[in-house]
Every structure is written in C-alpha cells, then in structure tokens.
Amino acid sequence: MNPLRKIADRLMNWWKGETAPEVSDSTELTGGVMTLNSPSFLESMGLSRKRKTTSEVTYFTCLKMLSETLAKMPIKYYQRTDKGIIEAEQTDTSKLLTKRPNPFMTPTVFWNTVEINRNHYGNAYVYMRKKFIRKKYGGEVKILDLWVMQSNCVQIVVDDAGIFAGKGRLWYVYTDPTSGSQYVFDTSEVMHFKTSFSFDGVTGLPVQQILRDTISGASASQRYMNSLYESGLTAKATLEYTGELNDKAKEALVKSFEDFGSGARNTGKIIPVPLGMKLTPLDIKLSDSQFFELKKYTALQIAAAFGVKPNQINDYSKSSYANSELQQLSFYVDTELFVIKQYEEEINYKMLTDEEQDDGFYYKYNEKVLFRTDSKTQMEYLKNGVSGSIMKPNEARRKLDLPDGEGGDTLLANGSIVPLTMAGAAYQKGQIEQEETEKPEQPEEETEPDTEQPDTTGQPDETDEAEDEEEQEGGE
C-alpha cells in the first residue's frame, strides 16, 4: 500500500471522528520503513530496548528519599575553643557551602545533585575551582566555586608509572558531555564521595549494578501491568472453529477479533463472533499467581539495599505512628549516619587548610532538622533545656526564629542546684547543728575580775575614826 495513501486515510478518519486502530510499532508511522531503533527490528535480532532503571518506581523513590534527606540538612561552620564549641565567623570558602556553591545552584540543589549521582552511579565528584592569590610574601590558594561533574563522564586514572607527577597518584579525567573536551584534575581539586559498597576503597559500586536482576524483574512486572492496561485488562482467549484455514486467513481472523476486543477503547463493547465459532477467554487472575505479593516483596528488597525503611516507600502494612518514629530514627542511625560522616570527612579535608584545622575549624551537618517535631514537643524540649542550664534563653529563642531578649544571654538555674563537689553539704550542716543541740550544757566557772582590788589592811577605816571621836567626847 502506498504510504502517502495510508497517511491520507488516517487523516480523513481523524477528521470524520473515527478512531484508527492502535499502532503497535513505529514502522506503521514510517510507511513500513524499519529503523535500528524500531522495536520490531530489535525483537527480530533477539534484542530488547534497554529501559532506564529510574523508571522503576521503588528505585526512583529510594533515590529521591536519600538525595532529599541529605539536601535538607544545612552545613554549619564551627570552631573548637578553650571555652567550648562556637559558631565561627563566615569566610568566603564557608559561604560556598552555606549560601551559593556556584552562580547556578543553591546549596540544596547542589547537594541533592551530588547525592543522586552517588547513589545512581556509585560515585559523585565535585570540582573545586581554585585560584592562587599572590601577596607581598608568598600567597594563598582560594576556592572560587564548586561544580558537580556528571559521574558517567568521569574516569579515574591511576598513574602507576609516574608519568605525570608521582608514581601511584590518582587523577580524574572529566569529559565534557557538550563539547567533548577532556580535563585532568588532581585529587586535591576534586571531592570524591562513594557508596558504602567498595572492594578497593577508591570507587564505589552502585545499587543498580548489584541488584541488576532484581530491578529488571521489578521493571518487567511494571511492563506487564502496563500491557494489561493497554489491552483494557482483557486476558487472552481461544477461538474454536470447524475447518482448516491457511496462515493468511488465520492472521486476518485474529486481527479482526483484536480490532473489536483489544485495547482500552474497546472496553465494554460487544465482540461479534461468526457462526460456527466460539470465543473462550482464559481466566488468569493475578491473585492466583500472587503477583502483587511478589511485586511488594521485590520493592522491599530494593528499599533494603538502599537502607530505606518500608514506611518511606509508603508501605504501612506493619507500621503504626509510634513505629514510624522508630523507623525514622533507625533510618538516621543505620543509613544516614554513614553518609553524613563521609561527607563531613571529605569536606573538612579538602576545603580546610592545615592552619584552619589546627585552629579547630570544621564543617558539620545539622542533622537535628531530621527530628523536627510538633510545636508542643519542641516547646517542652526548649523549656527543659533552659531550666536545666543547658542552653541560654536567647539560644532557645533563636531556634524559634525569635529576636533576642534583654538578659537572655545568661544561663539560668534552680536555686537548689549545687556543684558536684558540694553534693550533700546541706545534709552535713544539718547533722552538725543537731549534734550541737543534743550536747549538755556545762556550768559556767566563776572567774575573778581582771582588775585588782586595793589593799585596805594598813589604812584606817572611816567608821573606826568616827567611833574613837565619840568615845573621847563621852569621857570629857
């Protein structure tokens, strides 16, 4: 049939409102011309078009969960001092991690992209563009911006012959996917993040490579469900007839029944069966083959390989509200703690100078954002922290995005709280007072006055002199 005539007929049917039969292959749209990407050509060669692993819903959900979990945690810049850990003053380098890694990405988008590459390809690479700034005496190397290199465009080269600058050193060869240009970077210019599954410690293996068969099986089950929807959930059927038909007649007969009974557009319509023929559908139920149970089990296997909990892939069959909180804590301890520690170690080693590390500066993810609770629980947490002398009132107000209050930079404590060295002092004091009250009173001893009394033995008394005078007067 002339291809132009066929296309004209399709346009006329569309103009009249008639629905054309569904196209099963791209060759019908190209006038019978078969290309190398045609499904019919691939099937004739025993090949099938490779589907992307990200099209599998469980695999995609795990990638999304892990990448967004890391991206939602902000990076803080701290310093260890003699008085404890304080939040350090921002520098140009720290602003790249907290405000803008490059002109096109925010920190959230940047680290989300890095984590997706790490989980999907097994490795993630971040290029640090540096510049040497000359000063009067020497100079310093400054990091200008950070860029994510697509993991499938990076190749790690080991210089085992010492051709470049030392035997056994690692080099990263990046091929620009747009221009095809190649760039070679030293290990000091690239931050390398890998998965936990690695045999050499240099490169990580992706989950899609380890669970290739499991993910392929999950994709095949999804394709089967799609084919059922496309056929209008119509199962296969057997056609009984009397007589013999050649191959061409069989194909025409089957095609006529498929035109009336196959596809979503024919759902609920009546299928005309010629006289002397019988159409018997094959009753195949998905529940008999435990299709959904196997599909659910496969999803749990993929999630377990990523370290994602069942409730995070919307499986609440064995979960409750309290159990979900425990699973969230288990997800942080079992899965995210390793990822956070790896990122912090690589960032602190590659982005801080030796002097800054010696002075106690370091970067740290704020993992507390993963455990944000309701307002009531948060207020109780802050209240107990302030009353327990753990945090200052202004520190608690900052966590609620409130301004500082006057006198709020002082730790508060209950008056009954004493230092550890004075524990039990109140009981010892009471015991001493009780012993003093029970002790019997002693009589006071008479003490002579300190002043000496004058000696009057040799001096005449005034009363004696008076008596002598009276006697003399009586004698006269």
TrEMBL record:
It comes from the Bacteria. Residues 443-453, 461-476 have a biased composition (Acidic residues). Residues 426-476 are annotated as: Disordered. InterPro entries: Phage/GTA_portal (IPR006944), Portal_HK97 (IPR006427). This is Uncharacterized protein. It comes from Clostridium scindens (strain ATCC 35704 / DSM 5676 / VPI 13733 / 19). The lineage of its organism: Bacteria, Bacillati, Bacillota, Clostridia, Lachnospirales.
